[in-house]
Structures
1.
Amino acid sequence: QVQLVESGGGLVQTGGSLRLSCAASGIIFRLSTMGWYRRAPGKERELVARIIPGGSVNYADSVRGRFSISRDNAKKMVYLQMNSLIPEDTGVYYCNNAPTSGPTLSWGQGTQVTVSS
């Protein structure tokens, strides 16, 4: 069974940093493009960062320059380093695969990120 488990969220002040982790199982991780998504209060889930198997990355305009996605294929882990956080980053963060056609895996529980002003 596919399982995606996110961790690392928390409460941080504006300008602070957090590092999120995602443990994936039940997929061929080394061949999967992976991404981090977030759902802000009252908004739809959006893709904020993506990393392909070879390591190339893409970011949403809203987070480019502040967030950094990485992966460890041996550990089947994907990470999101978030710096210079602002209140608009508040939301529940999820990992999933990120093919061009959209995610195909069942969503995990996500991890809450709250940035206070």
Note: Strands lie at 3-7, 10-13, 18-25, 34-39, 46-51, 57-59, 67-72, 77-82, 91-97, 111-116.
2.
Amino acid sequence: QVQIVESGGGLVQPGGSLRLSCLASGSIESIYVRGWYRQVPGKQREVVATTTSGGSTFYAASVEGRFTIATDDAKNTMTLQMNNLRPEDTAVYYCRLVDHSRRDYWGRGTQVTVSA
């Protein structure tokens, strides 16, 4: 009954901001790694930002300095604050959680479109 749901996507102008949210529900073991990924049709899915249980974060070079990943364990949520958005950020953004047993959980994705 594990369910991962992303929200917050939409259409935004270049230079604008969006905040994506990921809500996890159901019985999930302790989380090892969680993060955000994105995919453009016809291209390989790529990592955007990740965070570990120890608090370490990783950002793709293309988003570092513009995006911020954060978690709230009490609310079982994860967010991606996206600032200074560019057209090349347009993609479907996915939430991913990996537990300590390396079980992989994915959301269904939320569309982000950056266009003037």
Note: The chain has a mean pLDDT of 94.
